[in-house]
Design brief:
Chain A: Keywords: DNA-directed RNA polymerase, Nucleus, Transcription. The complex is a heterodimer of chains A (310) and B (133). Chain A is α+β, with helices and mostly antiparallel strands and 310 residues long. Helix content of chain A is 18%, strand content 34%. Chain A has seven helices and 18 strands. In chain A, the strands form six sheets. In chain A, strands 1, 2, 3, 4, 15 and 18 form a six-stranded antiparallel sheet that branches. A four-stranded antiparallel sheet of chain A has the order 5-14-7-11, with helices on one face. A two-stranded antiparallel sheet of chain A has the order 6-12. Classes of the chains: A alpha+beta (310), B alpha+beta (133).
Amino acid sequence: MAAAQAVEEMRSRVVLEEFGVRNVHTTDFPGNYSGYDDAWDQDRFEKNFRVDVVHMDENSLEFDMVGIDAAIANAFRRILLAEVPTMAVEKVLVYNNTSIVQDEILAHRLGLIPIHADPRLFEYRNQGEEEGTEIDTLQFRLQVRCTRNPHAAKDSSDPNELYVNHKVYTRHMTWVPLGNQADLFPEGTIRPVHDDILIAQLRPGQEIDLLMQCVKGIGKDHAKFSPVATASYRLLPDITLLEPVEGDAAEELSQCFSPGVIEVQEIQGKKVARVANPRLDTFSREVFRNEKLKKVVRLARVRDHYIWKK
Amino acid sequence: MEEDQELERKISGLKTQMAEGERKTALEMVQAAGTDRHCVTFVLHEEDHTLGNSLRYMIMKNPEVEFCGYTTTHPSESKINLRIQTRGALPAVEPFQRGLTELMNVCQHVLDKFEASIKEYKDHKAGRKESTF
């Protein structure tokens, strides 16, 4: 009985001990365990696999993937970072730049601005092609000139009052439709994602006048094409109490973990600790610093339950 | 999700290049002299751990495979060596192709489940917003 439990633990949990981590690698391949059929079975995978979306809004997404292996989950993470295409500024034609930001620095900053355009509606530009066509290029124009504000107070020193247009934001970028793009994309859909990104600062007499061309690319080529700020996953924590913990030890135990993980309940006059929500834990392993409590708790992670956050 | 489509596209690109055999090589087979076709090393160009690790996992799940491993030759070169040894006399190409197809099926299923889950979440949120009025 104990042996069967130990085998289950080896197959399904990654155990965190005081000085190391055990059972890290996937071992459930055919032939490794007698009595288990580990050959690939698409139906069994489909039955066990599920995706639960926990939270989704315009800028972030958190979801759970249960029943898949680390190799494939990691492949998805690598693809999210490096191989999902987006549109980003590639070429900047500078007509006039009298600001103190150098041309190349300005061009680098413009390349990193995220553009709100669906890359599936565009094609990759062929290598060696200089002119962009309407199917693979988006054009934006940025024209800003800074002037002195004639209505400012005589002795004010606040640049917001003294100067007009002294901060260049992404909202100053205007889309220039090429060819039939004006028909395909309604007004306002092709724009930078955020319109309050500061691009440069100017003083009176300085001007920026440039034309930007965006192409489709992938993160492997240049990080500006990566669509995610970051995509990461963690395994679901699994905390088991090997013995019942009561009294003051229960309070101490709840302090060792992130808030909300361990709940102390009053049962028949005694305080008893109970694992309430292990998902919230960040595994600081504080419990291993407490001599009494470290034998009572087993910290582990469920091997095939991935919590994704983007 | 786009990445599932990307993974599928990359795998099918590999397969069609295997069939054509004439474009710039994406795949090579290397075999030691004197052995029959059951232990083969495949050299995949323009690939890295993204495909290597997931493909290795799918091929290892095949009970006919005795050994499967992959390495990246050097971090500056973008290619991987994938070695497959099968039990008995099964030609090594067979588990390789089967692993690729199974990986495509997995990705397709993940994509379907994910899209269904997103749709369900959106409907649930829309339903809840309406019920609060």
